[in-house]
Records
---
Amino acid sequence: MYFNDNFNSLTENYLFAEIAERIKKYTTENPEKKVLKMGIGDVTLPLVPAVTEAMHKAEDEMSQASTFRGYGPYEGYSFLREAIKNYYGTFGVKLNADEIFVSDGAKSDLGNVTEIFSQNNTVLIPDPVYPVYVDSNIIAGRKIIYTAATEENGFLPLPDKKIKADVIYICSPNNPTGAVYSQENLKEWVDYANASGAVILYDAAYERFISQTEASRSIFQIEGARTCAIEFCSFSKTAGFTGTRCGYTVIPNELERGGIRANSLWYRRQSVKFNGVPYVVQRGAEAVFSKDGKEQIQQNINYYRGNAEILANCLYKLGIWYTGGKNSPYIWLKCPEGMKSWQFFDKLLNEAQVAGTPGAGFGKNGEGYFRLTAFGSRETTTEAAKRIEKFLK
Ligand code: PLP
């Protein structure tokens, strides 16, 4: 009996375990010091009332024989798909409901979508990157090539016509760098993909953090994207669903290669391996698009944005180079005095009792950079900014 040896090619990702270990060691040796954790990628504000009310109501329906629901549609209930379709309409993107697939989150879909692509495809991934893209393609045994995201390109690499790839991952607003593509730059990627036949897998998990009009909420705001892109989105960071689990994937009917439609393949894949998201959760997700839900989640996003602004102002005052913070809950800063990521982590922990995430953990080009997040409380964020300012002044 054999297992899949591609697992041997995964590099052990010790990043978060190593961070936890170093914080534990420090707090054991310095029990009187309070460490502020500014590295978390999880939200801290609870679900908004519009969502929990909808979920309670749905639970009541589930407790009555006349309104009970069993297995739902693989692709999600039409009430939620219609709500998502209408949301896209608010920024000028016209979708058909059958192009929207509801799932238990973007991570599953980003990993699982690799199954509809040929084994022989070459995958182009930016570095540094959200690790799921790399690891799911390693498990599938595909050839991966990297495009460098660097300070010179603002951590927003553009296509290089000399490079041939079949599948391209783009994440905007980006995790870990917080950088956001302009519509003009996304158009370059779309044109490149349409010219070469590549498919873009566009991760829009943080789209609700966008405040600038020149940035895109969806790749489908870009002309030509319907023939070359799949978009992944999530309620996790925008509506606090990290533990509730719901997301969606958009596959336009026009996206086909070799006469086969990606939408049909994904429907087939989901119908074989997925039995849908709980009814109660989908009713909660639907409420995110209601009038009250929209206002309430906007307040939470504004709260996180306020935190990001506090951190960004602090770095600006110190003259430290950074990206993100404006249209993203992440701030990606250049470690001062040429320090390496882990060196800066240790110094910040030991001298200011602030813990972030070393950029080196997200890829080779992350070395020398550091990620802070805006998902903490206002109090913690304000205190962390004060400590960083005092320590780096
Ligand atoms: N995509 C990016 C870029 C993320 O940072 C995350 C979570 O941190 C996800 C996707 C996963 O989202 P979900 O919770 O919907 O699985």
---
Amino acid sequence: MSPGIRALVWDENGAHVPRAVYPQGIRGALAGALAQSGRFQLEPAHLDEPEQGLPPARLDAAEVLLWWGHRRHAELADGRVAELVARVHAGRLGLLALHSGHHSKPFRQALGASGDLGGGWDEDGGPEQVRVCAPWHPVAEGVQDFELAAEELYAAPFHVPPPEAVIVQSFFPRHGKGFPSGLVWRAAEGRVAYLRFGHESCPSLHHPMVQRLIANAAAWAAGAQRRQ
Ligand code: ZN
């Protein structure tokens, strides 16, 4: 059996993440999603560690970086971002940003975009209906349409470059608004993926379809399917 995909699972170590929803924090939930698939070697990391959890040796050892931040984006040192994005663009490190990671420095700089939510947002988004749009894509493998009971609304347009594929699209019936919740891009020689799920007060990261999307997107961003 081949060794697992080396995934660095980073979050901002946010004190506001409710432990009742995510007892191990967001990075713990993301690591749990990857562990379900049995395809990964996991390395958890966070902002309050030495070198902000991203020392060069750790980045060199990883094939994909999962990124969740919300309130602490500005604390990430610009030099570190440049180092990280250079690895992404060189195809040495895939990037998977989740939820509020749309406004993180690595995601914005990797895509050269603002990542702004043109249609706004609302923490009280109500139910979220998720439809698979690209069943042919490896990130959609094993994913069926699903519904989350309550999520934060993000509303289109999403200010990012045109993606290679829209994997899933969300509709929030209470608001009558939609958002492309699963996107993948080629960025220079590298790969970048985005999944909208993961608002800290909603348990979406425990949902089996969301977990499947996370594992598939991480594997795709790592370029892992090229080795199969
Ligand atoms: Zn949120």
---
Amino acid sequence: MSANTIEHNRTRQNFDGVSSIWLFGYGSLIYKVDFPFLERRPASIRGWERRFWQGSHDHRGTPEAPGRVVTLIQSPGAVCKGMAYRVSPKVFEHLDVREKNGYLRFATTLTFEDGSHREGLVYIATEDNEAFLGHAPDADIARQIASASGPSGPNAEYLLRLADSLRKLGADCPHTFALEHQLRSVTSDKA
Ligand code: SIN
């Protein structure tokens, strides 16, 4: 599938008669909230794990030197914590452009901290998109993140802000925290 998902997303869900919908954010959507929302609540989804396995050519890297950003990988029993936003479907006109480098909107069940559930959407970059990079050793991922930068800023900032936001949410994400640790050692070696 082409890395540009704007057209694919346009036809994925029918929002006729829908005034608001829950959106689950697990990456930059937790800390970079450049869209209007009606309500915001910490939430989690089941069966998915966060991984820095998606290439970023348009935000945190370039086509020549892509950065790495998060996507979700299926993992039975896993719980991924993030932030849910109740938004007007109009918001997807903006977010589909922001998430265009490989992310598709999928339906998912969100669980809030009080145990209640709602149906919602989540952007996931699946492994059949052209920008998908997949697994690599943590040290290699950290080195790639340390050196990449794009129109939205340094890739390192994406990782550090996400790690901070996850700590504030009380989310345990060993993968993100291990990469944060590696990144700090890569950058202190350079200093
Ligand atoms: C998300 O945050 O939910 C999607 C991935 C990203 O934009 O970092």
